[in-house]
Amino acid sequence: MDEPETVGFIDVGTNSVHLLVVEFHNDSMGTPIYQDKEVVRLGESLYRDGRLDKAAIDKCSLVVSKFSQMSRGLGASKVYAYGTCACREADNRNELLEAIRKEGLDVRVIPGLEEARLISMGVFGPTGPRERTLEIDIGGGSTEIILRQGEENLFLDSLDMGAVRYSYGLGVDTTVPVSDRDYDALRRHVDLASFRAVRAVRDLGFDRAVGSSGTMINLAEMCAARRGGDSSYFTHDELVKLMSEILPMTSQQRADIPKINRNRVDIIVAGGAIAEELMHLFGIERIEISERGLKQGMHIEYLLRRGYTNFDVKESSVRGLANRCQYDRGHAERVRELSLALFDGMRELGLHRMGDDLRGLLGYAALLHDIGEFISYTKHHVHSYTIILNSYMLGFDYRELRAMALMAKFHHKKFPNRYDRLFRDLEEAETDDILRCAMILKTANVMDRHRNGAVKEIRLSVSLGDLVVEIVPQEGTDVSMEIWRLGAMSEEFSAVFELCLSPVLEVGRSF
Length: 511
Known about the structure:
This protein is an alpha/beta fold. It has helices spanning 42-49, 54-73, 85-89, 93-102, 112-124, 163-168, 180-204, 214-227, 236-246, 251-254, 268-282, 294-305, 313-324, 329-348, 356-368, 380-389, 398-409, 428-447, 480-488, 490-497; strands spanning 5-12, 16-24, 31-39, 76-83, 107-109, 133-138, 143-149, 152-159, 208-212, 233-235, 286-289, 455-463, 466-473, 500-505. It is elongated, with a radius of gyration of 26 Å.
């Protein structure tokens, strides 16, 4: 791709219309620069009355038109719109498509299996997950079931069940308290719609489960609010308890549930029934949550159609975010190089046993550690933490984003211990690994504190309980300040690695 360009992607869903605007840089797969969503409820009239009503058509065409205009206003040279379940099923879908066409945009209506494939691409990226992973995407009108490992989709299906379809198409009023009998009826519909997919996935087996879409995200947020933890997952037991409390409530009462999306108070019972029963049928105790989906799949499909093949997804995502934050590339590259040199050298000396996965995360954190300066140098380490944690970079799961964010946060100012509140949801071993990487990053950053590449090379050895860091400077540079600062942080270093840091100038040189 010779010149950077901006492209808009619009997902015309059964419940909501989603917008993603991506800016494509030469050294990345593209960086999201804007996202938006508007609830239009195409499926409400469709599943209640069998047709899309005029109000839904008018609202949907207006939203799509506005999203297209917003994309153009952000510099988009192209805007693509895909229609999913409601557009596939409605007898009068041409009325909707024509209304949108009058606003200057064509909508491509995609089959259910194509929707599943694009969701798989969006959630997992083009290279896919290493483990055999089951993906469940509960939409307004359909639920996509995906089994993927690496680049291969082992199983794809699009099931006729969704939160809006079941709320308005099965005769169960989900705006009032729902009886156990009616809730069981919803779950039986899930059984009937999914039995072939469940049997196929069980036969193939899976190692990990991931959920996406607004329903899954909101269920995770509500479960997290109850436990006081993060919303990157929820368990089957948590969901069962949550649903048992929701069922006796009216829509108005549900609006007071902590973290519930108020646009979902009438459809959360049906969405929860689908999620709960599928977790039961597949034998899922814990499901991770992805913020990505169809629109990100449209983004990747766009790259593939144009012959893009350099899918180092994580590196591309990191570079894209760094570019957006106008990072100091020379300093970031130097800190990454020094961080990895420290990591490798200390591993060779037997000072840690961290693997290459953490090595990679450390390298990415080094590239991103100062991006908070985009907001303000003051507390830039805190801003870096916030940006990374909430970046939703393609290729990374939540735990990886959190690990990198913590490494970046603690490269500057006071260093924490393992009892810091930010580690409360982590296992002790994971906390210790993040602290080790953060200390390595902090050490590397000190070695380029003047951002002039003064340190050319480092050599590591252990002597009398100290980690000796021999500094080889660039010709004609003074590294006395760097050596002094490294010595000053020896106590912090010792608290993490149980040996003191002893920086020395290369043998044979003098200040």
